[in-house]
Amino acid sequence: MLNRRELMGAVSVFALSPSVAWAQAKNAAETAVAAAKQYAGTEISIVWEAGLQSLDPLNYSGPKWEKLTGIKVKVVEVPTDQMFTKIMQDFRSGAGAYDALNVIPSWMPDLVRAGALEDLDPFVDKFGYREELQDIAPAYRDNQMTVGGKIYGFPDDGDVMLLYYRKDIFEDPKMKEGFKAKYGYDLAPPKDWKQFAEIGQFITDKMAPKTYGAGFFRAAPYPQYMFQERFRMEGGKFFDAATMKSTVNSDIGLKVFNGMLAENKFMPPGVEQWNFVDNLANFLQGTTAMTISWPPYGRWAAGYGSGEEALNWVPKSQVAGKVGYALNPLGRDELGVGFALAVSATSKKKQAAYLFIQWLNSKQTSLERVQLPYTLRDPFRTSHYESPEYRKLWPDAPAYLDTIKKAGETGLLDLSLLQQDKYDEAMTKAISSLWTGEDPKAILARMASQFDAITEKVGVDKQREVYKAWAAKPGAYPAA
Questions:
Q1: pLDDT tens-digit series, residues 155-177
Q2: pLDDT score for 21
Q3: At what angle are helices 420-435 and 223-233 packed, to 10 degrees?
Q4: I want to staple 62 with a disulfide (CB 3.0 to 4.6 A). Which of 73, 346, 373, 413 is the partner?
Q5: How big is the CA angle at 274 (ends 307 and 183), to the nearest 5 degrees?
Q6: Can you tell me the mean pLDDT for 360-384?
Q7: Full domain range(s) for residue 68
Q8: In the prediction, which pLDDT does 194 show?
Q9: Torsional sign, CA 447, 449, 453, 458
Q10: Dihedrals phi, psi of 369, to nearest 5 degrees
């Protein structure tokens, strides 16, 4: 018979066993850590976008996970444009080289149909994660998490296109007076693309070459996300839902292309070749008064993270404290790429991989990760937007987070079909041709023809099924 001391010792050992400890944890992060300790001494791999993104698991979350659980994390860095191919190659080979995955949500129908992603629902229920998933902003949770009603990925990056503008210029009394006299309405963040063009031209006329009205990244592949947003917000549909014939070659498509082309005239010379960094540098140096990009621009413009060695490529902001944040013209912003955490169907360590991504994605850990100045993970949870800690990071951080929250409630989902990369390539090439001076009508006709050829190759009936499911999501098309 055990004496009291022996009995208490036995109870302590029992309480600390993984099968019991995780069930008594206070939150999803603690649950994942407690359950994962049974795998101490093993290693899991995770695919991550090469570059700044990978500094999160390499420098922060990977080492912290190993310290908490004893599980090593091998980070497999892959360029974004190769990630889909690498994931599919590993799946088809059956090698199981990858355990956890980062996937762009628009790839998920392809990956799920192929069988490359593990259904996460059983793990979500086993480890009590369903409630915390409700904290993820609706646009991401409702659009980027499930395929066919099952969870295959955890939205993990609040990618959304936002409008950034120079408050000091927009609030300058002389500029306000002159603009109101010319156009009859107040100088403010544009509500539609007509206002955007009028404001941009006005600022250029008054301030160029020191400051131009706006600047955008125009080099491939970025502009196609802006096209997707504008085309739908102007009333366009990508396909006829019954026939699956492309409908991009339309009056709406032509209006959007002509608008994009005309805007270059009040932007700095050479804007057609600008990439992500060119556009960032010009805005931070004060050359442009408006731009549209992902959330990191807002942080870097405020000077957040300027002392980080990993960000020494980011020009020193000359506009800190002068930048305002707003929704894009017409009020529903493209979610624009994003990432979701998933588990490879061929992994030999599925539960360990799952526990790692639950911990990464949890309210507690994700709040730490989205505040890292040297990575590109953006706020994606309601708790991120409301975090007192985050809202103190720089003076305008509350306005920044409030704007991201609005965008995250109503954002537009990237087109997501089988072989989506082929449709993306067709849009990217079309816009590149637009900058060379080719006739917009001819470009749209060719793009529509390319869309139709891809659909035929995939199979009209098969693609119609996927398109119908995508179009039914709240972020697919704005309400009529």
A1: 999 999 999 999 999 999 999 99
A2: 57
A3: 90
A4: 73
A5: 100
A6: 94
A7: 4-155+337-378
A8: 98
A9: positive
A10: -70, -40
Whether 16 is in a domain gets the answer yes
9 pLDDT above the threshold of 50: no
22: confidence class by pLDDT, cuts 50, 70, 90: low
Domain CATH number, residue 51? 3.40.190.10
Residue whose entry in the numeric block shows the structure tokens 């407690």: 34
DSSP 8-74: HHHHHHHHHSHHHHGGG-SSHHHHHHHHHGGGTT-EEEEEEETTGGGHIIIIIIHHHHHHHHS-EEE
Query: How far apart, in whole angstroms, are the C-alpha atoms of residue 371 and residue 352?
Result: 26
| Burial profile 255-264: b = 16 or more Cβ within 10 angstroms, e = fewer | bbbeebeebb
Residue written as tokens 């807002």? 298
CA 8 to chain centre: 50
Distance in angstroms (rounded) separating the CA atoms of residues 96 and 347: 5
- pLDDT of 269 above 90: yes
Q: How many domains does the chain have?
A: 1
Rounded Cα distance, 473 and 459, in Å: 22
Residue 37, number of CB atoms within 10 A of its CB:
17
What's the average model confidence in pLDDT over 337-356? 96
Q: What is the structure's pLDDT at 25? A: 61
- State yes or no: pLDDT of 187 exceeds 50: yes
Does an H or E element contain 80, and which? helix 80-93
> Model confidence over 419-471: pLDDT tens digits?
998 999 999 999 999 999 999 999 999 999 999 999 999 999 999 999 999 99
- DSSP 3-state of 147: strand
Query: First vs last Cα of the chain: how many Å apart?
Result: 75
Q: What's the pTM value of the predicted model, to 2 decimals?
A: 0.91
Identify whether the C-beta of residue 199 lies closer than 8 Å to the C-beta of residue 288: no
Reported as type and span, the H/E element at residue 432 is helix 420-435
CB count within 10 Å of CB 49 equals: 20
Kindly report which listed range (36-45, 52-61, 391-400) carries the lowest average pLDDT score.
52-61
- Helix (H) or strand (E) holding 150, with range, is strand 150-151
In a domain, 22, yes or no: yes
Query: Average pLDDT, whole number, for the chain?
Result: 92
User: Residue 135: inside a domain, yes or no?
Assistant: yes
pLDDT at 5 exceeding the cut of 70: no
| N residues, the chain | 480
The answer for 244, left when phi > 0, alpha when psi is -120 to 50, beta otherwise, is: left
User: What is the distance between the alpha carbons of residues 298 and 54, in angstroms, rounded to a whole number?
Assistant: 20
Q: In Å, how far are 10, 11, 18, 21, 365 from 25, measured between CA atoms?
A: 20, 17, 11, 6, 15
Q: How far is CA 161 from CA 24, 199, 406, 408, in A?
A: 40, 19, 12, 10
pLDDT at 3: 43
